């Protein structure tokens, strides 16, 4: 394949061609001017000659039509022929051979061509030199690009570069940043998929085995109606548990793949009221109160925030046996929002308050069914919203869930995975 011409060579050739065109045009004009001015100067010189007598007295007379030839006398003067008498009038014409003018013009043309060729060569050399200096930043940028590794970032000094090279380096750095972000997003997706598959295989094996055993018993044995009904109830319960576990795992997986592009403006006060109203319809025997004293808007994930409030209420009622749940949201300093859920249930022992945020962890004394993913979802959403989740004692006698949320997305430090940070507050 033919190698492309370098930028330096192209600039040098362009400089030489531009100089040649300009110099040729100027030379043609200059030669025309020289030739015209040479003719004019010779004409003026001839017109300035005078006819004088030997004694120095000038004479001039009108021409009567006669033509005579002057003859040199050897002293640098020209004499009239001897057959002319005193008082005769003649027409005196002076002329210079054309080859004298041509020689003068040709000599000047040679000088002009020599200067033009020198100027063209100088322009090419200067174009080559300055082009070489101009492409040095591009060469350094090329070398920096070749050194790009797994970090996908250019190590290129922009202060010493030209404006165009610095802009190109910035554009390339931004492109590499986007590629790196997409690569990390793809890696996160693959890791999430592997985690989902491994977790699902581990957590679903036991209920699936139990369901298979129950179904085999139903198909192979003649059982009393009451026993069959009990086994069918167990199968349906196992199926419901599988469904809720898969649904929770799906929400966790989707949360790990969330990006800033998925965020939207959320009215937290309206969202809390809606979730509490829905919970009232599902739990008519529980007192549910929402307290949001002022409108709160934040850039977040509406579905994720809804799951935070819903899971907190569900856990308080299902696992804590709460009969009263109060949900409140208030603004906090530094652009944060504090969401609290208080209940009057049995609470959570202090030594388990950190562990309950782990996936599939269920309290030692818990007897109610569940996937163990509810508070893990809460912790994940708190992390995705730039905040934390923690359990403390509640004024109602049970437990208080405190979730902090940022009203705007927090910038992630370079090289840090936003989904890898811990959502729990420091001890």
Automatic annotation (TrEMBL):
Q: Name one GO cellular component term.
A: plasma membrane
Outline the extent of the HAMP domain: 132-184
Which InterPro entries does this UniProt record tie to the protein?
2C_sensor_his_kinase (IPR050980), HAMP_dom (IPR003660), HATPase_C_sf (IPR036890), HATPase_dom (IPR003594), His_kinase_dom (IPR005467), HisK_dim/P_dom (IPR003661), HisK_dim/P_sf (IPR036097), Sig_transdc_His_kin-like_C (IPR004358)
Q: Which SMART domains match?
A: HATPase_c, HisKA
* Broad class of the protein's primary localization: membrane
**Which segments show compositional bias classed as Polar residues?**
418-427
Enzyme Commission designation: 2.7.13.3
How is this protein situated with respect to the membrane?
Multi-pass membrane protein
Residues covered by the Histidine kinase domain: 199-409
Where is this protein found? Cell membrane
Q: Which reaction does it catalyse?
A: ATP + protein L-histidine = ADP + protein N-phospho-L-histidine
Q: Which CDD domains match?
A: HATPase (cd00075), HisKA (cd00082)
Is ATP-binding found in the keyword set? yes
Key words of the record: ATP-binding, Cell membrane, Hydrolase, Kinase, Magnesium, Manganese, Membrane, Nucleotide-binding, Phosphoprotein, Protein phosphatase, Stress response, Transferase, Transmembrane, Transmembrane helix, Two-component regulatory system, Virulence
Instruction: Map out region (Disordered) in residue numbers.
Output: 407-427
* Top EC class of this enzyme: transferase
List where the protein spans the membrane.
Answer: 12-34, 110-131
Which cofactors are reported in the record for this sequence?
Mn(2+); Mg(2+)
The protein's GO terms of the molecular function aspect are: ATP binding; phosphoprotein phosphatase activity; phosphorelay sensor kinase activity
**Which PANTHER family does the record match to this protein?**
SENSOR PROTEIN CREC (PTHR44936:SF9)
* Descriptive protein name: Signal transduction histidine-protein kinase/phosphatase MprB
């Amino acid at each position: 394949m033919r190698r492309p011409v370098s930028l330096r060579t192209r600039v040098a050739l362009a400089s030489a061609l531009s100089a040649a065109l300009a110099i040729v045009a100027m030379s043609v004009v200059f030669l025309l001017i020289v030739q015209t001015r040479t003719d004019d100067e010779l004409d003026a010189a001839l017109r300035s000659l005078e006819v004088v007598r030997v004694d120095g007295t000038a004479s001039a007379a009108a021409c009567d039509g006669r033509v005579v030839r002057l003859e040199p006398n050897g002293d640098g003067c020209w004499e009239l022929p001897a057959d002319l008498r005193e008082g005769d009038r003649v027409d005196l014409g002076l002329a210079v051979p054309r080859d004298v003018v041509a020689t003068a013009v040709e000599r000047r043309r040679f000088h002009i061509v020599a200067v033009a060729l020198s100027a063209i060569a100088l322009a090419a050399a200067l174009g080559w030199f300055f082009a070489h200096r101009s492409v040095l930043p591009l060469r350094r940028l090329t070398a920096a690009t070749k050194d790009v590794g797994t970090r996908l970032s250019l190590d290129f000094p922009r202060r010493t570069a030209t404006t165009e090279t610095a802009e190109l380096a910035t554009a390339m750095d931004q492109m590499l940043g986007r590629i790196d972000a997409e690569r990390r997003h793809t890696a996160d997706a693959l890791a999430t998929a592997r985690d989902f598959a491994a977790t699902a295989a581990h957590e679903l094996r036991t209920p699936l085995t139990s369901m298979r055993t129950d179904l085999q018993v139903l198909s192979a044995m003649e059982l009393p109606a009451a026993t069959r009904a009990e086994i069918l109830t167990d199968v349906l319960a196992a199926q419901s548990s599988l469904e809720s576990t898969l649904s929770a795992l799906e929400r966790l997986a989707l949360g790990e793949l969330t990006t800033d592009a998925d965020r939207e403006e959320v009215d937290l006060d309206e969202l809390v009221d809606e979730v509490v109203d829905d919970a009232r319809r599902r739990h008519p025997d529980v007192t549910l109160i929402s307290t949001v004293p002022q409108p709160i808007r934040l850039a977040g994930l509406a579905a994720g925030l809804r799951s935070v409030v819903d899971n907190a209420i569900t856990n308080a009622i299902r696992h804590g046996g709460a009969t009263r749940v109060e949900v409140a949201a208030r603004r906090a300093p530094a652009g944060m929002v504090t969401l609290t859920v208080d209940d009057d249930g049995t609470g959570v022992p202090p030594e388990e308050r950190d562990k309950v945020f782990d996936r599939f962890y269920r309290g030692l004394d818990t007897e109610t069914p569940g996937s163990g993913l509810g508070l893990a979802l809460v912790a994940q959403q708190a992390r995705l919203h730039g905040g934390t989740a923690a359990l403390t004692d509640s004024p109602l006698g049970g437990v208080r869930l405190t979730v902090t949320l940022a009203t705007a997305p927090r910038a992630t430090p370079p090289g840090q995975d936003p989904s890898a940070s811990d959502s729990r507050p420091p001890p």
